[in-house]
Amino acid sequence: MRISTTMQYTNSLSYIKNSNSKVDEQATRYNSGLKFQSAGEDPSGMASKVKYEGAIAAYKQYIEAGGIANNSLSEEETALSSMWDTLSSVHTRLQQCVNGSNDESSLKALSAEIAQLRDHLFDLMNTQNTEGEYIFSGANSSVATYTLTSEGHYKCQADGSSRGVVVAPSVNVQVSDSGLDIFENCKTAYTINATGTNLERAEVKTYGTFNELFETYYKPAGSVAENTLTINLDGNGKFTLLDPNGNTIDSGEVDTSTSINKITVKGMEFTISNPNSNESISIQLEKPTTKNMLNILTEIASVINDESVSNVDKIAAITKCQVDVEIALSHYDSYRGQIGARQNAITNVLNANESLSAIKVESKANVSEVDAFDAASELIRAQNQLTVSRQIYSMLNKQSLFDFI
After folding, report:
1. The pLDDT of residue 93
2. Which helix (H) or strand (E) covers residue 296, if one does?
3. Is there a contact between 115 and 297 (Cβ–Cβ < 8 Å)?
4. Cα–Cα 20 to 30 A to 278, which of 190, 200, 248, 366?
5. pTM of this prediction?
6. Three-state secondary-structure class, residue 127
7. Quick check: 38 and 375 in contact, CB under 8 A?
8. What is the pLDDT of residues 233-260, one digit of tens each?
9. Residue ranges of domains in the chain
10. Please, are residues 175 and 165 in contact by the beta-carbon 8 Å criterion?
C-alpha cells in the first residue's frame, strides 16, 4: 500500500469534517431539544410524535370546551338562583296579603310590589350571555325567551331544545335548559269543579291534605266519571265522601256552628244552603295544568288590587297562588340541582382530561425529546472530538514523508 502526503491531508480533513458534522448535529439537538427533525431520521419516532400531538391537541380542545360549558352553566345557575330569591319574596308578600289587618291601601301597595317582582322575574327569564344570546331560549337563542303581548299576556318563545358540549371523547354535557321546560311547563296547584243544587261555594282550603286525596284518586287517562268524587248528605246533617266506585273515603257532620253551613273534608270546604237535605255534591278532580309564573303573578296582582272582589275570594285566590309559587320554587330548584350535577361532572372530566393530557405530553417527550444533560454531554464530547481532530491535522501539517527518508 502506497502512502502519500496528500493522502494524510485528505484523511485528516475528512476526520475534521465528520467531527464538525457531529458537533452541528449535537448542537441542533441541544438547542431544539428534539431527537430528530424529520421523519427520515426516525420514521417510527416521528409517527408516534404525530399521534401524541394529535391527542394533546384534542385534550386541549376538550379542556377549553369544558371551561365554556362551566361558564354557561354558571350563568344559568345564577339566573335561576335570582329567580328563586324573587319568588321567595313574592311568597312573603302573598302571606302579608292574607293578614286581616290590611286595608285597601296596604293591599294596593302589596299588589304593586308583586307586579314589580314579576317584572324582575321577566328580566331574569330573558337573561343573555356575553354573546347576546338568550340562555333560556333553546336553539332559538337570538329571540327573547318571553315577550309581553299587547293584551298584557306573557308569551314563551323558547323551543324545547337544549345545547351540549363535548368535554371528553365519549362525554357530551348539556349546557343549557329551555325556558319551555323550566317556566312554561311548570305545574300549578290541583283544582276541583264542584256542582250541586244545595252547593253555594267550594274551594280547597288545605292543599297538603287535598293533594294526597288528588294523587290517590286522579286518573290521567280516566274519563270525567272516573275522576269524580261524590258527597252524599243523609238529610240529618251528616255527609259521606265517596270515590268514583262508590266506596267511602271519609264521613262527618255538617258544621252549623255559624250562620254558614260548611262541610270540611280532605282539605276541601263546601258551603251549602241546607245542612239537612239529602242531596249530592259532585266533585270533579280537574286535569292538572301548567302555566308560567309571569301570567300567574299578573292575575293575582289584579285580583288583590280589585276592590270589587270579595275578601273571601281574594284569600282563596291568594292561597292557591301561594301553592303555585311553592311548586315553581321546587321546580326551579330541581333544575339548579341538575346544573350543579353537570358542573360536578364537568369538573371530574376536566381533571381526568388534564391528567391524561399530561401523560400524553410525557409520552411524546420520551419519544421525541432529548434529555438536556445527555444532550449537553454529547455536544461536549463532539466538540472535544473536533478539537482533537484539528490538533492532529495541525501536527500532520508540519510533517512530510521526506522526513522519514
Report:
1. 95
2. helix 293-305
3. yes
4. 190
5. 0.78
6. coil
7. no
8. 999 999 999 999 999 999 999 999 988 9
9. 1-33+377-405, 55-187+318-355, 192-288
10. yes
Q: Is 252 helix (H, G, I), strand (E, B) or coil?
A: strand
User: What does residue 127 show for φ and ψ, rounded to 5 degrees?
Assistant: -60, 135
Q: How far is Cα 353 from Cα 55, in angstroms, rounded to an integer?
A: 11
Strand ranges for 276-390 from DSSP E: 280-285
Task: Pick the more confident residue, 151 or 54.
Answer: 151
Whether 279 contacts 261, CB under 8 Å: no
Strands 228-233 and 280-285, sheet pairing:
antiparallel
> Which H or E run contains 66?
helix 43-97
Just give the CATH number of 55-187+318-355.
Answer: 1.20.1330.10
Distances (CA, A) of 233 to 104, 151, 162, 285, 394: 39, 45, 54, 20, 130
* Mode of pairing for the β-strands spanning 238-242 and 199-204: unpaired
Q: Which of 362, 401, 393 is nearest to 14 (CA)?
A: 393
DSSP H/E element including 7: helix 5-32
CA distance 164 to 69: 8
The rounded radius of gyration (Å) of the Cα atoms in the chain is 42
What are the angstrom distances between the C-alpha of 296 and each of 149, 159, 188, 303? 15, 21, 9, 11
**C-beta separation of 353 from 67 below 8 A:** no
Print burial letters for 150-188: b (CB count within 10 Å at least 16), e (below 16).
eeeebebbbeeeebebebbeebebbbbbbbbbbbbebeb
Contact 38, 405 (CB under 8 A): no
Query: What are the pLDDT digits (tens) for 93-107?
Result: 999 998 777 788 889
Helix (H, G, I), strand (E, B) or coil at 257: coil
Q: Quick one: DSSP state of residue 225? A: G
Taking the C-alpha atoms of residue 288 and residue 197, their distance in angstroms, rounded to an integer, is: 26
Structure confidence at residue 164 (pLDDT): 83
Residue 104 confidence (pLDDT): 85
Residue 345 has pLDDT above 70, yes or no: yes
- Determine the average pLDDT of the residues in 8-29: 58
Q: What are phi and psi of 230, to 5 degrees?
A: -135, 140
Residue type, 20: N
Which residue, chain included where needed, has cell 337544549? 162
Residues written for the chain: 405
Please, what's the largest Cα pairwise distance for the chain? 154
Between CA 44 and CA 46 the distance in angstroms is 5
